[in-house]
Each structure stands twice: as structure tokens, then as C-alpha cells.
């Protein structure tokens, strides 16, 4: 069969339907859930758009996550052809990955996450207090969605919150499509230096936080610094975008808000599925193999579209409808397999606490600009909104 490959993945979402994946992904899922895709560097690889195949690829040890093997599916995304440095376990296969994952799972304990719930409630209340004092009216991204997860991940790791300005701006550069290699390097160097100082401080003055806990293992300084870097990077922008995009989706569909209050746990799973803020995850075949009846050769890269899989009508009934009452279990918004999100319980607690608190405290919350003026993050690797201008004052 002669098949013309589809072009590299588009970024962002259609502007008029900001929560929906592009139509072509749905059409592909119907016709060829495993399609040939032409990557921006010319590589002829693959694109997976169905839920079943997505899970199959992500659970298959014959696929590697290593950056030096893969081709990047969107133009302008950072590329590395270097093997993962010590500690950057997100980019490692077993057995290197297994050792780090083990050590870290021991730090993300149920006890620590449960203790955090009270703290997250307090942090959320403090930010809502501040909004009420300065409002009515604010940018929800700056006043709510970004600072709450930033403060939580800082406290969890033991990063002084006041020092966050030293890494927060730089961390944004690491996730911006089109950031120049110089900008990336400057960002990496600055955040690295910051965490390096912190690790020395934790070794000298350990406290009840995760970085201190990790200094008590056999991890070397370089590994600790890189792990701190990975966790800060992964914990900052992800939850922040889910909070902002989740709030935006609910402001556009206010009829769903009662269901959020009735069962925040269930509602958050549906928001994660429907919004799928991580657009894709990438693997490379380590050997020749057969998938869905097709031959994939060693060295070929397979990109899994998370939004396409999470909108698969073969797995979720009426998938393009946001329905906070549905059972959305089995979504792959946190990935699947051995690299499934390490911070998912933390992210869930943050979303379950902060979103209902927002709509309880500010029942008149609404957009203060027309929806077409909301700038979507089509230029970033993690989807969301750049700003979310809202008000909650009396309607005149
Ligand atoms: C709503 C928020 C979040 C979403 C949607 C999300 C999504 C994801 C996804 C899709 C993956 C899998 C990537 C792959 O397959 O290659 C992942 C992995 C990961 N996430 Fe998250 N994440 C979120 C929050 C967090 C938080 C708060 C943390 C940290 C504290 C975190 C830490 C990680 C780490 C360390 C990995 C890599 C795990 C590994 O390679 O073993 N994430 N996340």
C-alpha cells in the first residue's frame, strides 16, 4: 500500500474551539489510528491517535524514551541528541529509570500527599483572599493558577518561595516553542546553579522536605540537582495550566460547576481527559516490531497524541462533550506505563482543592473580556491560556 505521510503535528487547538483537538486528528483516528507522519527534521515516523494503541505503545518495553534516539514531532520544540545526564530519569529506559523512580516513589508518599492537602487549602485561601482584597477583577493565571502550584512544589521540595523569581522566568523559557538554543542554555544554567546551591544547603541543614529526604539516599550531587530540576520543571507549568484552562472551560460551561462541587475527584478526571494539556508523548522503537498489523522498524519514532486518545469514541462515549458526571477513568492525561506521571496524586489534590474553592469563594466569577480575546498557549509545549481576565463584581 502506498500511503502519503501526514505532516508533523500541529501545535495548539483551533481558535474557535479552543478545547478541542484539531479535526484532522479525529479523522486520522477513524481511518488510520497508526499513521505514517513526516517529522519536521524529515524523519518518516508514526503517529498514534487511538486510545488502545496509545496505551499499547506506552506499555511496551520495546519502545524507548531516550532523547538521543527520538525525532521531535513539532517544529520549534527543543531537541537533544545527547543521552540523559545522571538524574534526568524522565529521559531514561530501565534499568537506569527504575532505580530513580524507586527512590522518588518513596518520597511521594501517601502520608506526605495527605499532609499537603491542608497546606494546599491554606495556600489557595491565601491567594483567594489576596484576589478579593485587590479585586473585583484580575488575571486568573497570575493571581491563582501560577502561584498556587509554584508555592506547593516549592514547599514540597524545600525551595524558599521567595527565591522562586530566580528560576520561574527561566523555567518558562524551557517550555516555549521557538526558544533559541542560547535562551534554553541560559535558562538551564540559571536554574541549575540555583538548585545546586539549594542541594548544598539541604546537605548542611536538612529539613522535612523532599530534597532533604533525597540527600539521605546514595544519590550524588549531580543526580540530586538534576532530579530537583526535573521535579520543579514538571510541577510548575503542568498544574498551573490545568488550573487556568480548567477554570476557563468551566466559565464557558457554567452548567457543569455544580458537578464540580458535588464530586471534585470525578470532575477533575474529566477535566484532565477533556483538556489533555500535554499534547503528545514520544517513543522510539528499539527493534523491528509489529503494531496494529504494521511493521515498525528499529529507530523509527512513534508519537502518541494524548488529546486524540482521550477523545476516542471507542473508549469514551460522546467524547467531545465535557461531562463532569461521567466516569472518565482510563484517560491518559498523565501518560501510561512506567513513565506515567510521578506527580499525579499531587496534581489531583491541587486541582480538587483549588478549583472548587475558586467557584465557592467567587460565585459571580466570569470572564471580563470576550472569549475571542483569550490568548491560547498555541506557542507552548503545554497547552492552556496565557492570561485569563476575570471579574466577580456586581453586574451593572
Ligand atoms: C495536571 C498536571 C500534570 C499533568 C497533566 C502531567 C502529565 C504528565 C504526563 C503525560 C507524563 C508522561 C510523559 C511521558 O509519557 O513521557 C508525566 C510524567 C511525569 N510527571 Fe507529570 N503531569 C502533571 C503534574 C505533575 C507534577 C505536579 C509533577 C511533580 C511534582 C509531575 C512530575 C512528573 C514526572 C517526574 C514525570 C516523569 C515520570 C517518569 O519518567 O518516570 N507531574 N506527567
Structure, described:
It is built from 14 helices and 10 strands. The model has no long low-confidence stretch (mean pLDDT 90). It has helices at residues 23-31, 51-58, 96-105, 110-134, 140-145, 147-157, 165-174, 181-204, 210-215, 221-252, 257-262, 264-275, 306-310, 344-361; strands spanning 34-38, 44-48, 63-64, 138-139, 280-285, 289-291, 294-296, 301-305, 366-367, 389-391. A hairpin with a 2-residue loop joins strand 6 (289-291) and strand 7. Helix 6 (147-157) packs antiparallel against helix 10 and helix 12 crosses helix 14 (344-361). It is an alpha+beta fold and 396 residues long. The protein is globular and about 60 Å long. The site of protoporphyrin IX containing FE has 24 residues, from helix 10 and helix 14. Protoporphyrin IX containing FE binds next to helix 10 and helix 14.
Ligand list: protoporphyrin IX containing FE
What oligomeric state do the depicted chains represent?
single chain
The counted number of beta strands is 10
Roughly what fraction of the amino acids lie in strands? 5-15%
What is the count of helical runs? 14
Distance between the termini: 64 Å
Which segments are poorly predicted (pLDDT under 50) over 5 or more consecutive residues? none
* Topology pattern, helix = H, strand = E: HEEHEHHEHHHHHHHHEEEEHHEE
Query: Looking across the biggest beta sheet, what order are the strands in?
Result: 1-2-8-5-3
How would you state the average pLDDT, rounded?
90
Structural class label: alpha+beta
What's the main sheet like?
5 strands, mixed
Helix content: 40-55%
Shape: globular
